[in-house]
Amino acid sequence: MFDLDLWREIFQSINKNRTRSLLSGFTVAFAILLFAILFGIANGLKNTFKEAFGTDANNSIRIYAGRTTKAYKGLQIGRQIQFKNEDRDFILDEFGDKVQYITSKVNKSVNASYKGEKNTYEVRGVYPEYMYIENNKIKDGRYINQGDIVNRTKIVVIGKKVETDLFFKENPLGKYINLSGIQYKIVGVFTDDEGESEESVIYMPISTTQFIYGNNDFVDMMHLTYNPSMNSDQALAFGNSITTKLKQKFSVAESDQRAIRLFNMAQGTKQVDIMTASLTGIILVIGFGTLIAGIVGISNIMIFIVKERTKEIGIRKALGASPASIVSIILLESIIITAIAGYVGLLIGVGVLELIGPSLETYFIKDPGVSNSLVVGATITLIISGAIAGYLPAKKASQIKPIIALRND
């Protein structure tokens, strides 16, 4: 039940010792301010790395074919490795549920035109799974589906930039776009967070691309995402296994680094994880060290307050006040000082990040800020810190004997 007299008494005590309270709270406020700024900068660095990786799935692996650089099993050096449709099935057969999504890809450059408007764009022949690997978002219509792959339908999904360039305000859905002399029906428009470069792309079923531009089953590269449950080390081992299996399939020497090339996002993810973990460790050491100094400061002032109020506490106990009620007064006062000082520090820290955030992009720190989870964590930490700071003084106060307290000068 809310006790107005109790709270009035606590705030009167804080006001009476406001200089000491301010000085003790300053250390806590500084610790939380330091936490907020350092965590904000760490988050800014993470945002920079995330942007550097683009918006593609961060568990993706790209596989490229090249020329051999070593003779192997009687085969000549300089042999061109050519991926085909069967290689996608080979990876699925070999690795099963370790693969989340996979597509083969064929790239072409085409001259696109619609009602006199012309431009040159990249066409990518892909499977429907590519939408999830590339993190495309459908703005209008639909994406490529399995029926399009089976039937080699002459449909395309265009990027938002293509729509803007060729159709202006006209709705492109259902219209036919001319790609190097061949008409294709537009069934969808997509957007991509990477911006215009990725939105200047036209997707079509890979089977259609292969049939029209070569009548073969050749593919330029394969792109997949691994099972998200894998950690970085498992993902790196998985990527190495794919390379080894493909080298065996194409009779490529194990030491040949150019015939089969694999780019695994897990490598970058692991490096970022190590760096951010190290940074977080340093921040925690600095922040907690400062916070502990603040807790010690508040504990000292609470000890002083208990000593100063010894006679008053003795009178309270003589009139029947329980030890628990004495403890609650001291603990609440300690928690309030810690919480108020901490939140002042948090607000100043967030304000500093808002103020200097834009200028930090020069130093590869993008959109620094603190998360809601940090605010919740700070709240819990402050309450626990206040309780720790007040525990010993509160316990000492509860053990004061009335007769001794009344003799205290």
UniProtKB/TrEMBL annotation:
GO terms for molecular function: ATP binding; transmembrane transporter activity. Residues 285-402 form the ABC3 transporter permease C-terminal domain. InterPro entries: ABC3_permease_C (IPR003838), MacB_PCD (IPR025857), Macrolide_Exporter_MacB (IPR050250). Keywords: ATP-binding, Cell membrane, Membrane, Nucleotide-binding, Transmembrane, Transmembrane helix. It is found in: Cell membrane. Residues 21-235 form the MacB-like periplasmic core domain. One of its GO terms (cellular component) is plasma membrane. Pfam families: FtsX, MacB_PCD. Its main location: membrane. It is a multi-pass membrane protein. The chain crosses the membrane at residues 21-42, 279-306, 326-353, 373-392. Belongs to the ABC-4 integral membrane protein family. This is ABC transporter ATP-binding protein. It comes from Siansivirga zeaxanthinifaciens CC-SAMT-1.
